[in-house]
Please model this.
Amino acid sequence: MNDQPGNQSSRLDLLEELITHQDRTIAELNEVITSHWRKIEVLEKEVTRLREELQNIGPARDAPEAPPPHY
Model:
C-alpha cells in the first residue's frame, strides 16, 4: 500500500468531501420528511373531519332512493 504523505492527504480530502456530501443529503432528506409529516397531519385531520361528516349524514340514508332518471 502506498502511504506517502501526499496520498494520505488526498484520501483525507476525499473522505471530507464524502462526509460533506452525506451531511447535505441528510439535511435535505430531513426537510423532505418534515414536509411529508406536515402533509400527513393535515390529511389525517381531513379524514377525521370527513368521517364525522359521514356519520352525521348516516341516518338520512334510510330514506328510499329516487329512481334513476331513465325510468
The mean pLDDT is 88. The radius of gyration is 30 Å. The CA atoms of residues 3 and 9 lie 10 Å apart.
